[in-house]
Amino acid sequence: MLFRQRSLRARIALAVSALSLLPALMLAMGILVCVRQPDPAQRTLIMLVMALTGLASATAAAWILPRLLIRPLRLLTDHIEHLPDKQGADRLVASEANGEIGRLVAAINTMLTGLDQRSEAIQKREQRYRIVSEFSNDFIYWRRPDGTFEFISPACLEITGYTVEAFFAQPGLMDEIIHPDDRHLLKGMAEEENSPYACNGNEIEYRITTRDGSTRWIRRNCRPILDEQGVYLGRRGSLSDITDKKMLAEQVSHLVLHDMLTGLPNRTLFVDRLTVTALHTVHEQELMAVIFFGLDRFKLINDTLGHETGDQLLIMTAERLRRLLHADDTLCRFGGDVFAFILVGRESKHEAVTMAYRILACLSEPFEANNGQQVLLTGSIGIALCPTDGKDAETLLKNAETAMYEAKRGGKNSFRFYASDMNAQASEMLTLDNSMPSGLANGDFYLHFQPQLNLTSNTVVGMEALARWRHPNLGFIGPDRFIPLAEESGFIIKLGEWILRTACFQNAAWLKAGMPALRIAVNISGRQFDEPDFVDQVASALADSELPPELLELELTESMLVSDGRQSLQRLRILKEMGVQLAIDDFGTGYSSLSYLKHFPLDRLKIDKSFVKDILTDPDDAAITDAIIAMAHSLKLQVIAEGVETLDQLAFLEDRGCDEMQGYYLSKPLSERDLVSFIKARLNNSH
User: Fold this and answer.
1) Distance CA 446, CA 426 (A)
2) What is the maximal distance between C-alpha atoms in the chain?
3) Which pLDDT score is estimated for 247?
4) Interior CA angle at 522 toward 562 and 431, to 5°?
């Protein structure tokens, strides 16, 4: 470029001086020439030529010199005009000029470098944002203050079913897709859309209706866009599809608050609803009934038919109970085989009675299990009324449950309303339950023995060991009271082992004292029999007491044998190889087929006293007893009848070929000393 050695100011000064001196110089040269020329005409001509030459030179200099002066600026202007077409280093102005031109060029190059760096940074940010927005699963947008869109990410199509073009063409579509029931959540947004407070960053969850008509859950996050002066430029936000998360949350909530087997509300949800309903009932002075319904002897069904069948029966029971509900009632599976009802807005207790009868009636039709077997269920019902029997959930639940267990103790398949004295009975049961372990440790439990008579020889051949309990504060507690409690709590395992060992030691002591060799029968509970070390317990009791194995008889229930037939058979065979005798207790009261008997190494069947009681007046009981004796003999099994109380009953059994008997006609259960006296008296009379 020009003027590389001088500053712009010096160049301008030099050019101006040259332009001003050039005409004068030409005039001076003309004067000198004219002085030497004698001819006036020539002098005039020379002066005119020199003047015109000076004027022309000045004019030429005035025309050329400015163009030379502005050439660097023109070149600089041309460079800047073509900047959009240049890239990289070509965008910088190439110049070696000093002074103002040099500083101007350096400033322009610095400015261009900064602009290029900022432009590159902006491009990179835009590229990253575009990558994030295009590959994001969220519907990202930027809305101007007038509601139109500046930017929309492609995910809008996946979430809403509408294209980017659809939202650009119809900005109001964003609000139209909101589910009508959720539009109140965004109420006021339309009026505030020009306000920076229209979006405050808070997340809102609502539903939208997609283009195909389906409903999806959305989480919206929106923030205002403000410039440096705080001017509102619009709002940016994102819509996230949370439908799957909502569904998962609902499923988790359902699982937490509902029974997995039946789908009914569980105890947690039931208590929550009962709490709210009880408050409303008391406040509105209405009547509400809480009903507890428990299936009778369901553990026996589980043990006999298996837990899979038991679960199936619970599902079918829940379905039948569900059909009885009114719109505002609640039914839940409270736990195990217990269901609970909340009957709201009842006018009198008679409506609760009606519901109780309907509950019992819905079980009257037999259930058909998967294996085709028909099962008949019954249940016991307890009813507590609000506010009469309680004003809060805890009290009502406790009282309804207490009434249900009272119904079970009263004979099952019935219902009971709660009464205040039931709590005293429940408290006593709790006391007994808590006292059993210490009672066993303190020697409060003891055995009585009921003799067993051989009907052919008329001699005592054995006795049954029966547990008794004398409570230090409550006195004598019958087995009908403590045995069920022990079964429920699991204490029967420890108590059963004590009975087994005590019976073995007592019989061995009698034998060593010179008493006749008598068989001693011990009842074994299902929970005791299921213990992994049960066979070892029997072996240990025999070894420690030195009682001959053939003088020990274990009485088992038929349900115990068929609950796990293969394992039961294996244990019975081991016991039989040890020499222990095996009997089926309470035969005829179970739910199983009689065909299993031939597979087990049994010695005798014991006819339940419920058949013997009415054997002379009930043809069905007589026929069943006759059939049991005949069937047992066909399988080469001995038969013993329990509960024999009269001579006529004894005569009937002898006539049918029954082998043995026990009951009050022969003797009530006796203490250790009384049994010895009874045996000696029988021996003396026989002589």
Assistant:
1) 25
2) 205
3) 84
4) 95
Rounded CA gap, 507 and 665, in Å? 23
- Joined together, the tokens standing for residue 206 give 């609502």
Dihedral sign, Cα of residue 645, residue 651, residue 653, residue 659 = positive
Q: What are the tokens at 315?
A: 């599902």
Backbone φ, ψ for residue 617 (5° rounding): -115, -20
C-alpha gyration radius of the chain: 54
Angle at which helix 534-545 crosses helix 492-512, to 10 degrees, equals 30
Mean residue pLDDT across the chain = 83
Per-residue DSSP letter, 55: H
Could you tell me how many residues make up the chain?
687
- H-run or E-run covering 80: helix 40-81
Give the separation between CA 519 and CA 565, rounded to whole angstroms. Answer: 27
The SS3 call for residue 674 is: helix
Cα(684)–Cα(677) distance, rounded to whole angstroms?
Answer: 10
Give 162's DSSP letter.
-
CA 586/CA 605 separation, integer angstroms:
8
Q: Where residue 488 falls among pLDDT bands split at 50, 70, 90?
A: confident
Strand locations in 377-427, DSSP E? 379-386, 415-417
Residue 237's H or E segment, with its range, is strand 232-241
Tens-place pLDDT, residues 239-273: 989 988 888 877 777 778 899 899 999 999 999 99
Burial of 484 by CB count in 10 Å (0-12 exposed, 13-18 middle, 19+ buried)? middle
Pairing, β 367-368 against β 374-375: antiparallel
Higher pLDDT, 132 or 83: 83
Neighbour count for residue 667 (Cβ, 10 Å) = 19
Lowest-confidence pick of 162-176, 196-210, 435-449:
196-210
For 589-620, give one letter per residue: b (16+ CB within 10 A) or e.
Answer: ebbbeeeebeebebbbbbbbbebbeebeeeee
Nearest residue to 522 (alpha-carbon basis) of 575, 559, 484:
575
DSSP state of 390: -
Using pLDDT thresholds of 50, 70 and 90, give the confidence band for residue 5: very low
The closest alpha carbon to 333, from 416, 261, 255, 415, belongs to: 261
- Give the C-alpha separation, 389 to 63, whole Å: 120
- pLDDT tens, 363-407? 989 998 877 778 889 999 999 999 999 999 999 999 999 999 888
H or E, element range at 476: strand 475-477
H or E segment at 68? Answer: helix 40-81
Cα–Cα dist 116/123, whole Å: 10
User: Strand, helix or coil at 647?
Assistant: helix
Confidence of residue 440 (pLDDT cuts 50, 70, 90): very high
User: Quick one: pLDDT at residue 183?
Assistant: 84
- The count of C-alpha atoms lying within 13 angstroms of the C-alpha of 575, restricted to the half-sphere facing its C-beta, is 28
H or E element: which one contains 104? Answer: helix 99-135
pLDDT band at 1 (very low <50, low <70, confident <90, very high): very low
Q: Left, alpha or beta for 99 (phi > 0: left; psi -120 to 50: alpha)?
A: left
List, in sequence order, every beta strand (DSSP E) within 361-458.
367-368, 374-375, 379-386, 415-417, 445-454
Measuring CA to CA, which residue among 458, 548, 468 is closest to residue 510?
548
Which residue type occupies 565? G
Structure tokens belonging to residue 314: 């619970």
Model confidence, pTM: 0.51
End-to-end CA distance of the chain: 155
Sequence-separated (6 or more) residues with CB below 8 Å from residue 473:
none
> What CA–CA distance (Å, rounded) separates 418 from 669?
36
* Average pLDDT value for residue range 98-113: 72
Q: Which residue has the tokens 């058949």?
A: 611
